[in-house]
Amino acid sequence: ERKLSPFESIGEDTLHRLVDTFYGLVAQHPDLAPIFPNQFTEIARKQKQFLTQYLGGPALYTEEHGHPMMRARHLPFPVTPIRARAWLSCMTQAMDTIGLQGPIRDEFYSRLHLTAQHMINTPDGAI
Ligand code: HEM
User: Fold this and answer.
1) Closest ligand 1 atom, residue 36 Cα
2) Predicted confidence (pLDDT) per residue in 63-110, tens digit
3) N or C terminus of the chain: which is more exposed, having fewer CB within 10 Å?
4) CB 119 within 8 A of CB 84
């Protein structure tokens, strides 16, 4: 028997609810809102594609946008340690809100934590 991917364990509906809830929080966060566009439709769509493949589901992001190169795609935006913490706190809150719990949440969150550190490209206080 094949082991389920994290994407299959979480499920598409739950992942989409997570992303929509997450950007609802980002939109209201004073440290994050200023670097995001006013409209979250497109970024939420891309993030659903990205996280689907990040969790071992179909490569939806790559099919439409090419190699993820996430760090490079973030370089135009000043991602500071403060913003990385804010991003992760919105994610924690979104996971709490939709009720994503257990080992699958812990694994997913620890990967996001590592990826978020990798996105930091600007020191605090530089902007
Ligand atoms: C795009 C901020 C971490 C995935 C973006 C954008 C911003 C941003 C400002 C561009 C929005 C636009 O289109 O104008 C941040 C900040 C982070 C962070 C402050 C804190 C560490 C992450 C992490 C992931 C991620 C950890 C994935 C696990 C994405 C994706 C896009 C994106 C998929 C869309 C890329 C595209 O345009 O194709 N992010 N991000 N981000 N971010 Fe992040």
Assistant:
1) 9
2) 999 999 999 999 999 999 999 999 999 999 999 999 999 999 999 999
3) N
4) yes
Name the residue of 48, 70, 88, 122 to mutate for ligand 1: max ligand atoms within 8 A of Cβ: 70
CA 32 centroid distance within chain? 13
Measured from the CB, is residue 113 less than 6 Å from ligand 1? no
Architecture of domain 6-119: Orthogonal Bundle (1.10)
The pair of three-digit structure tokens given for residue 44, joined into one six-digit string = 């939420």
Cα(73) to ligand 1 centroid in Å equals 8
Domain ranges of the chain: 6-119
Q: Do the Cβ atoms of 80 and 123 come closer than 8 Å?
A: yes
Q: Classify the phi-psi angles of 11: left when phi > 0, otherwise alpha if psi is within -120 to 50, otherwise beta.
A: left
Percent of the chain residues past pLDDT 90, beyond the cut: 95
Phi/psi for 57 (5° steps) reads -90, -170
Contacts of residues 57-61 at CB distance under 8 Å and 24 or more positions apart, as own/partner, are 57/5, 57/7, 57/8, 57/12
